[in-house]
Design brief:
Elements lengths: L7 H4 L8 E4 L9 H10 L4 E4 L10 H6 L3 E6 L6 H9 L3 E4 L2 H13 L3 E4 L6 H4 L3 E4 L5 E4 L5 E4 L2 E7 L3 E12 L4 E2 L8 H7 E12 L18 E4 L2 H5 L11
Parallel strand pairs: 1-2, 1-10, 2-3, 3-4, 10-12, 12-13
Antiparallel strand pairs: 5-9, 6-7, 8-9, 10-11
InterPro entries: 3-oxoacid_CoA-transf_A (IPR012792), CoA_trans_fam_I (IPR004165), CoA_transf_BS (IPR004163), NagB/RpiA_transferase-like (IPR037171)
GO molecular function: CoA-transferase activity
Protein name: Succinyl-CoA--3-ketoacid-CoA transferase
């Protein structure tokens, strides 16, 4: 099946207000910027986003965040994104912060059809006991807090139950992809992209290089096409547009 869609705008045309999105990337690495920009241009809002962070340096999900299009974020990292912190602390944005490894496994479990799993991460903390601020009231108080989670003992150790994540859509970026949706990620871009792709009911991939089926060695495929429904081929200019968050030079 040829899954190639002509434009990013066409690929996200059915993403409606209030949709949930799993979005790949970490910082500026492997972020599906072209698909995110297409969503911004459509004007959809009230989105629930699952991503490690919510954009940086005014790019990626930060574009949607600044426009007030995101209602809820499930992630692990606020970092230096001042607008993310401002919206969270002012009560404009609901935020579920969870351990990074737990986030990765919740996405993977969703794609694997596993409804929930037990993990030691968070035992004895508010992650398990509840009362983590999900939404502030804008006056320094908590308007909505996380509920307690089930804790169970296995072989003398305690583990907390975490539910899998499934989203309406997933947006990812790959270095190479074929028309069947098989994807290859380059180095650190193979961060949350495969996991986000697995969690989405409809997964849309922007690829820097589009090749014909059979051009990718099966052993080189990082994510099989069964998890991908739509593929958008980037232009050379779009593929080369990669910003650096922190530049390090030697003297």
């Amino acid at each position: 099946m040829d899954k190639v869609v002509a434009t990013a705008g066409e690929a996200v045309a059915d993403v409606a207000d209030g949709a949930s999105l799993a979005v790949g990337g970490f910082g500026l690495s492997g972020v599906p910027n072209v698909l995110i920009q297409a969503l911004h241009e459509r004007g959809v809002g009230g989105l629930s986003v699952v991503s490690n962070n919510c954009g940086a340096m005014g790019t990626g999900l930060a574009v949607l965040l600044a426009a007030g299009r995101i209602a809820r974020v499930t992630g692990s990292y606020i970092g230096a994104n001042k607008e993310f912190a401002r919206q969270y602390l002012s009560g404009e944005l609901e935020v579920e912060l969870i351990p990074q490894g737990t986030l990765a496994e919740r996405l993977r479990a969703g794609g694997a059809g596993i409804p929930a799993f037990y993990t030691p991460a968070g035992v004895g903390t508010q992650v398990a006991e509840g009362a983590l601020p999900w939404r502030y009231d804008g006056r320094g108080g908590v308007a909505l807090a996380s509920p307690p989670k089930e804790v169970r003992e296995f072989d003398g150790a305690e583990y907390v139950l975490e539910r899998a994540i499934r989203t309406d859509f997933a947006l990812v970026r790959a270095a190479k992809g074929d028309r069947h949706g098989n994807l290859v990620f380059n180095r650190s871009t193979r961060n949350f992209n495969p996991l986000a792709a697995m969690a989405g009911k409809v997964t849309i991939a922007e690829v820097e290089e589009l090749v014909e089926p059979g051009a990718i060695d099966p052993d080189a495929v990082h994510l099989p096409g069964i998890f991908v429904q739509r593929v958008v081929a980037l232009t050379p200019q779009q593929a080369a547009d990669k910003r650096i968050e922190q530049r390090t030079v030697s003297g």
